[in-house]
Structure prediction request, 379 residues.
Amino acid sequence: MRILLLLLGCSVLARSRATSFDISYVNVPADAQVAVQAAADIWSGIVVSAVPIKVQVTWAPLFGTALGITLPNGRRDFPGAPLGQTWYAAALANSIAGNELDPGENDFDVFLDATANWYTGLDGMPGAAQYDLVTITLHEFGHGLGFVGLSKKEGTMGSLGTLQAVDFAPLVTSFPWPDLDTLPSIFDRFLDQQQDGPFALMDNPGIQLGAAMTSNQVYFNGPLAMAGNGGAAPRIFAPSAFALGSSCVHLNESTYPNSNVNELMTPYSSMGHANQWPGPICIAMLQDIGWTIAPDLGIHGTALLAAATIYPDPATDVVHLATPAPLIAPRIRVIDLGGREVVAARSGTETDVASLSAGTYILELRSEGRSVHVPFIKR
Ligand SMILES: [Zn+2]
Prediction:
């Protein structure tokens, strides 16, 4: 009986910590609302926020071939913002600040095409001519959570943060359109053109920035996304013909094609196909831009350990370990090449090696029950 009570206590605790979505619907049919909520429930188990995420979902005919469009609200230079002069999606800003920064406003608006042939079941089994609504909503909510940039290209000039409400007409947001003030989003700050470097260091607006946006060689250089992608920066969709709302805000279609585990945040979706999980690269990218990720899903453990580096090497007095993100309860010790412990285990990521005689040693780092061994030279 005691064990049952403890289990019950755990499950209540877990539920109270899940991120909640507060969704208002405009003209959305009842069966579609169930699918939208199912997509929100998937995200609520991935991103962690103490502040409920407010979303307005509108069912309306969309232009062109768009199945869904998301327009996020944003905040910049709020208390606790990791980077200044940078836009954060409102849901992310709220989660970082730990309180509601935009009371009375939605954090993002999602528009779903009322004319598409939707499959509203939850089992990921759309018919051959149907689009899976859970999949598409999951994608759109990903943009709302901050998988979004502020790229725009007019003629040869590219810019970050000059988008205006009129660019998305006839759609109208439920919140006042912020003056973006020619500033990048936190997502944009990780965009990197293979030869010319980071978008954020280019003249804005500028011709170089415009060329980068259509160079087909744009990567997301966040350290966690790279750690989760075998050390390589994930490739971003940046085709030679700029498409507003599609270019530079998605993973590259051909790199992550249908049925790739990371396909969800690519620009195109196929009929008869479902994918109800964002994939590890998307989750790591959200972690790079500042989201706290549920403990089992973020880049930590093995991937972080594999990315650990030592400095200085050779070392004289103290050895430090650096990882792209904080480890959980790290402990380190030093062993010699014969496996004998020469500096006892201690918590933290640095250790004193001044008393060791010169030679090669191995620093053992443990976190979350895993360990990695990194050799270094003591001078
Ligand atoms: Zn998209």
User: Anything to note?
Assistant: DSSP finds eight helices and 23 strands in the chain. The pocket of zinc ion is lined by residues 139, 143, 250, 267 (CB under 6 Å).
